[in-house]
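From the shared-data thread, chain only:
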Amino acid sequence: MNSWHEYLKENGAELVDSYVSNFGNEKMELATALSGHILCDLSHLGLLEVQGQDAYDFLQGQLTNDIKQLNGTNSQYTGYCNPKGRLLAFFLAFSHHDHIHLQLNGMLTESILSRLKMYILRSKVSIVDKSKDIVCFGLSGINAFEYLKGIFKNVPDVPYEIKSLEEATIIRLLGAVPRYLVFTPQNNAIAIWEKLNPFFSPAGKTCWDYLEIMAGIPDIEPSTKEEFVPQMLNLDTLGAINFKKGCYTGQEIVARTHYLGKVKRKTLQGNIKSTDQPKAGDDVYLDISNEVAGKIVRSSSSPESGYEALVEVRIEAVEAGKITWQGYPFKFREFSE
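Structure, as tokens:
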């Protein structure tokens, strides 16, 4: 356990597999996520750093979005596909000084790092795992911008915008309620956390998962790796695919799906009143025929009741009847913008 995690544990965090599950009362934390201000340690996410003379050209040939649009003031979502156009990972990408950062599901960090390195060949590129060196916080709340302005001299006020400061990098995320990521070296983490703590209530991974789901942000983890074409997870509507950037791994399949109008599946946000939590990769069914209609993308406990989930599903199945998991029906809704 590193010093940062030791500090969190001393301050009430319950750690599971090196990430913060909760701070002692998950139900109360979820209620705060719904209507208050929360502060989450995001140790469950990985962070890759890509740098070198050819870094931009290298990533341009690997990822679905236009990496060359990153200029140090903006961020973007992007996908990483296999040659068949199936997603291997989903990133939040941003540039900082002379390098590019790719944030992803922490369970994929090692395998994605190894795969990307395989394709460097003679390119002047280095890729390293910075997950343990850089701490990331997630913050949410209606007054988050004002609270952050009282601590940092510059704070982004529109989604995807970045402000790089001496002590931290701050990114504004999508969401009906303001959400932010704060990145800082581990030796700064305790000081920044303590400045934020009076304004935000500490919360665990479940709360952040809930907020991501409500904003319609998908995820790829080991159980869903190579299951989805980007459009199945709404990466096109998230602006995570650039159809004009040129070739990248899997581009032919992704472009064909777009230009031939063959998107027959999409991801919906829904609540389910089940007794158990759906898991990523689980099948969902059309109730009238009991045939497989799609898969769970990600899920979390709900602050109201049951569980919230992103569900990848055939459009025709949704139009035909109820979509169920273990016999429980989903109630789908529009994403919070």
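The chain has a mean pLDDT of 95.
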